[in-house]
Amino acid sequence: MSYDYQLERRRLFTEDGVAALLKIRDAAEKAIALGGAVQSGSIMIGGDEWLSMAAMDFLVEREELQRVTPKGSTAGQHEIFVAGRRMPRR
Predict the structure, then answer these.
(1) Closest alpha carbon to 28 in 7, 6, 5, 53
(2) Which residues pair with 67 in a beta bridge?
(3) Which of 15, 19, 86, 4 is nearest to 50 (CA)?
(4) pTM for the complete prediction?
(5) Please, what is the end-to-end C-alpha distance for the chain in angstroms?
(6) Distances 13 to 27, 40, 55, 67 between C-alpha atoms, Å
(7) What digits encode the pLDDT tens for the residues 9-47?
(8) CA-based nearest residue to 68, from 46, 35, 45, 90
(9) 63, 10 in Cβ contact below 8 A?
(10) What radius of gyration do the chain's Cα atoms show?
(11) What SS3 string covers the chain?
């Protein structure tokens, strides 16, 4: 079985999913504030890569993150993101 965003997206709206989403969003904001971009592998939650990927895809969908690497051009943990237009600026 391979990663399916529509299937994994549903998991984001569980207690564990929301916790993962917030952790990833906060880590992305911090990394982007420090260096201007973030590699997905550095903000993934250990043990559940698909949930982590769904969280990042959701943040792209909400325009809080912007994917720099073309979707599918590299392994999920090597994708690069910058701040999206809706990411809070601190």
Answers:
(1) 53
(2) 81
(3) 4
(4) 0.87
(5) 39
(6) 19, 21, 10, 22
(7) 999 999 999 999 999 999 999 999 999 999 999 999 887
(8) 35
(9) no
(10) 12
(11) CCCCHHHHHHHCCCHHHHHHHHHHHHHHHHHHHHHCCEEHHHCCCCCCHHHHHHHHHHHHHCCCEEECCCCCCCCHHHCEEEECCCCCCC
pLDDT on residue 71 = 77
Count of positions (residues) in the chain: 90
Structure tokens at 63: 């325009």
Query: Rounded to the nearest 5°, which phi and psi values hold at 67?
Result: -75, 130
- Nearest residue to 51 via CA among 88, 16, 89, 86: 16
CA 74 from centroid of its chain's CA atoms: 15
Q: 1: exposed, middle or buried (C-beta count within 10 Å: 0-12, 13-18, 19+)?
A: exposed
> Could you tell me how far CA 34 lies from the centroid of its own chain?
17
